[in-house]
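User: Run a structure prediction on this.
Assistant: Running it now.
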Amino acid sequence: MNRYAPHVYVIPEDDRDRQIADGFVLHHQVKDSRIQVVPPAGGWSKVLATFVKEYVPKLRDFKDAHVVMLIDFDDQVEGRKEQFAKEIPAEFQTRVFVVGAKRNPEALKNALKIGFEEIGRSLADDCDTDSTSYWSHEELRHNDVERQRLVQAVKPFLF
């Protein structure tokens, strides 16, 4: 990945979130050289700690870097959003995004009746086609504002 060109880092909470992110990257329209899914952090609080420690410096060094933190909201959407918002420096708010399942990826998988990678591909397809077929699902609709910001920021170089 060329750090001097527009690119995205995805920090998944756990292996299930990683599989969703990998499925997104595998979508036929996604330019996989512009996105990197890093190893799972091991919990939502560790996603946040990893972001602060490792990715805030990258955002400072590389003006075209973007970060997606892929977490489980564990049915605490507003509280988690607030916790993450406090740690995202104002200067990077247009390049940092927090998305994830309302409860957890298992609940999303059970509701959609498809595998994790297929969920990721389906979410990428929605982004590519300006659709919300999957993003509007009960387990994901709380991401709507963040999804819109994310698509606006990364679609020009990622698809």
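Residues 27 and 99 are 18 Å apart (CA to CA).
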